[in-house]
Amino acid sequence: MPVTALVSAKSSGVTATALALTLASRRSSLLAECDPAGGTIRAGLLGGQVSAGFGLYHLARAERTGPEALANAFASHLWPLDQAGHRKLLPGLTDPAQAAALARTWPALADVLHVMAQQAGHDVFIDGGRLALEAGHLHPTFTPAPLLYRADVVLLVVRGTEQSLALARHVIPPLRTALHEQGSGADALGLLLIEEGSFRAHQVGESLQTPVIAALPSDPDVAHYLTAGGNPPRGYGRSPLLRHARTATEQIEAAASRRHLQQQYPPAAPQLAGILQRLNRQHPEGGVTHG
Fold first, then answer.
1. What angle do CA 253, 236, 3 make, to 5 degrees?
2. Inter-residue contact 163 to 207 (CB < 8 Å)
3. Helix residue spans in the chain (DSSP H)
4. How far apart are CA 110 and CA 97, in angstroms?
5. What is the mean pLDDT of each run of 10 residues along the chain (291 residues)?
6. Do 154 and 190 touch, CB atoms closer than 8 A?
7. Do 118 and 137 form a contact (C-beta atoms < 8 A)?
8. Edge-to-edge, what's the strand order for the sheet holding 123-130?
């Protein structure tokens, strides 16, 4: 199963989107709330049920003890998002000042998240928050860069508005460069479109020169519930956002699978591609000739 990181250029609904994907997945799923600016789910959707003594920050101390201590701490700091416990949350930071303590924890946490995806069979989503840049590069403290570098898919969440696209244009080049130079490749980057505004998916992809991997409808009532908590809106379980989020998880998995295949079987060298063209000209209908 893929590890998917979600980020934004500015507030574009990353947390609500990540929650919708986690809750709508057909498989067991995990959301790691890794926004260095601080998590909002414990005070929002969870309504303050989870104390500050629980969550991401406490993994930093465990990581300094060793991998086994980190794995144990990780398991003990997961919070169920449903009664059956199939959907889990690693609650985020309660104070942005805690972000500096996680600088050396991110790579080890990336390993744990990949174990959850590859061996435990979870859909893993990372809420990476708003991208922070410094001198044209990902900020080493205020962006969880190592998690992005290791992710199977990195989705920049955008809305179909001119303002959102304008902001995205500034962060895509440095993010793509960072994924190329330090991550799994620039092709890990895609877009997740929130369908608000006049721009459709094909226009957004063309404008930003980045593929739209999935799209979700603008569903303000459900998004507000996922962000702020309280009572779920009427028809929540059948809402357009959750229905389309299930489809989006499948589209994300398909994109991750395509990347994996391309890495295993890279395209033929340009000088060899002509062989296929000549064969196709000789047998235009794909038939087989026998000698």
1. 20
2. no
3. 14-24, 57-65, 67-76, 106-118, 145-150, 162-182, 201-208, 220-228, 240-264, 270-282
4. 21
5. 95 92 96 95 92 92 92 95 93 94 94 95 96 92 96 97 96 97 96 96 97 96 94 93 96 94 73 61 50 43
6. yes
7. no
8. 79-80, 87-90, 29-33, 123-130, 3-8, 153-159, 189-195, 212-217
